[in-house]
Amino acid sequence: MATAAQRGAPLGMNGLHSRASRGGSAPRVRPNTLRMQSRVWMPRYVPQAAAEDVMNTSFAAPLDYLAPPSNGKQRVVVLGSGWAAMSFIKSWDESLSSQYELVLVSPRNYFVYTPLLPAMCAGTVEERSIVEPVRSVLKSKGKFFEAKCNEILPDEKALVACFPEDAGFPEACFKLPYDILILSVGCVNNTFGIEGVEEHTTFFKTVEDAARLRLRVSECFERAALPTTTKEERQKLLSIVIVGGGPTGVEVAAELYDLIENDLSKLYPDIVSDVKIRVVELMDHVLSTYDRAISNYTADVFKRNGIELVLNSRVSSVSSDCVTTVDKEGLETRIPFGACVWATGIAMNPLVKDLQGVLPEGSQTHFRSIVTDEYLRVRGAPDGSMFAIGDAATIEQQKALDKADELFIKGDADGNGRLSMKELAAVLNEASKEFPHLAEHARFLESKTGAFRMGGIVAKAFASANMSVAGTVDEEMYSRYVNEDASLDREQFMELLQTIDSGLRALPATAQVAKQEGDYLAELFASQDISASKPFTLANTKPFEYVHKGSLAYVGSDQAVMDVPIVGPVMGYFAGLAWRGFETFSQISTRNQILVATDWARSKIFGRDTSRV
Predict the structure, then answer these.
(1) CB neighbours of 362 closer than 8 A, spacing ≥ 6?
(2) In whole angstroms, what is the distance from residue 558 CA to residue 603 CA?
(3) Is 5 exposed, middle or buried (0-12, 13-18, 19+ CB in 10 A)?
(4) Residue 348: alpha-carbon gap to chain centroid
(5) Separation between Cα atoms, residue 186 and residue 383, nearest integer Å
(6) H or E segment at 222?
(7) Between the CA atoms of 69, 73, 74 and 77, what dihedral angle is there, to the nearest 10 degrees?
């Protein structure tokens, strides 16, 4: 089942989530337990002279430090320690050690169970309960290097990696040859180029992000409780804005509501009435990928709990204390905040983008992911020596542009040689039966602001077409031209399809997909003689096939929603119990299962820890 963000944990087995880059946001204040010092860290008992020796010592190894295996084994290098990579490691057959040397490279030495990050930001579960050391999962299957891959050299079959800079040591880089590379580096946060997002919001993809939000909420309440704080300032400090009405945004809002209702209301009785939680969503309903009955139920729960849904609105800018939104009528609204969470959008990892640039021309045309074949092999990689799994990858699909003429004729209902917004939505919806990647655009076009989803691809196409007809070039205000009177001619429709095709994802960026891809690839290695020294064929091997097992999300007040195939939508307290049990037993280890279960009980009996530490 899927839960939270672009993720959704899979049913019946642990999924493992890929993380964005280590520094996905501008520097922000961190809690003491996570604060990265600008100087090299030293134990208190180390003499000053010894500390200076460490500071002045270079730990950098030669780039040719790690030679290829001398025992005839094929070196398999895995990049990443998230959902897909760790699923692959867990499913890796130890008997393959006689044939392969397994090496895992990641800038973090732990896995984090990301579906419970919203619970962590509210103190319902603790940080250490949802993380597991990479080495505990890898065990004797292979080697692990805590390092960030900075460059992939496909022609040399090597990569350059460096020890993470934020660890406080001098840089230490090395060159690692590989025979087979498995790319599982995930995606990064997408700001869509909106002013102020990077500087003034809290992203929500990592443990550090969740801890930062937890600290920020604590700071806002303490500052609001001061006798010198005016009512206007207090209302601003206690305003929490969450941008994104998907599973992540909904769960963050729900967990923060529980924290405030069950715990902070008792600790700050004089100011709790000024608290306001808002969720900003571009569509006319939250949880747009779920059954519509689930979206309506979630809206009802939020309404009863006093959580405001700002629908049909897009963020135009963010300042240090205010979010500016624009609704479907073009009306601007300024929403003051003490804390703002950015829980929408993913973008291509810079490492993937660099790799696309060095692979053969024409082999990689996707602007969000690395393209693979149906066996998860990277297109254009020499000798089939590279695989890609998880959020960083997408499987190549048939392109809608190939049937653009046929689709245009079907869509042009009135025969005027142009497609209106309504006609476009209808033809995309019909074509999505053959080209699934069109379904998301068709669904978004049901709302007036839906054309601005997916980076505004549809909006820009209509605006461009309408402006050319009107003879104006006012690109800054292109949104005014996206209306019922706008239309596309055949050439403009083909350009739109080409743009959509270039960004299509065959499968959603969720943990279910990543987990199944990791399992499939591990099974592939166990069943096939995969060697980079000779081309291999997979004629008798089944291609990867994704099986969707459902989605779920927590909506607050011990209630949850579940969208299960065949069964349909399940909502309410029973779903809440199922969600809690599922998230507990889906942990990567027994240790984590016990810790999470203990945290649920602790928060219910003793309340959440609100200490600012």
Answers:
(1) none
(2) 12
(3) buried
(4) 11
(5) 24
(6) helix 207-224
(7) -60
Mean pLDDT, residues 334-346 taken together: 95
pLDDT for 599: 96
The arithmetic mean of pLDDT across residues 384-392, rounded, is 92
How far, in Å, are 119, 238, 270, 278 from residue 337 at the CA level? 21, 7, 19, 10
* Residue pair 438/432 in contact by the 8 Å Cβ criterion: yes
CA distance 137 to 132: 8
Residue 543 CB neighbours (<10 A): 11
Overall average pLDDT of the 404-420 stretch: 81
Residues 6+ apart with CB under 8 A from 158: 175, 176, 177, 178
Q: What pLDDT, on a 0 to 100 scale, did the predictor assign at position 408?
A: 80
Say which DSSP state 72 is in. Answer: S
| Contact (CB, 8 A) for 513 and 393 | no
- Average confidence score pLDDT of the chain: 82
Q: How do residues 33-69 score in pLDDT, each as one tens digit?
A: 333 333 333 443 344 444 444 444 444 444 555 777 7
Burial class (CB in 10 A: 0-12, 13-18, 19+), 193: exposed
Q: What's the whole-number mean pLDDT along residues 502-520?
A: 83
Q: Is residue 70 classed exposed, middle or buried when 0-12, 13-18 and 19+ CB atoms within 10 A define those classes? A: exposed
Quick check: 124 and 580 in contact, CB under 8 A?
A: no
pLDDT at 114 over 80: yes
Cβ(313)–Cβ(280) under 8 Å? yes
Whole-number pLDDT of residue 67: 77
Structural contact between residues 454 and 439, judged by C-beta atoms closer than 8 angstroms: no
Residue 286, token pair as written in the block: 């939250």
Provide the residue count of the chain: 613
For 136-170, write each residue's pLDDT tens digit.
999 999 999 999 999 999 999 999 999 887 767 87
The CA angle 313-345-516, to the nearest 5 degrees, is 135
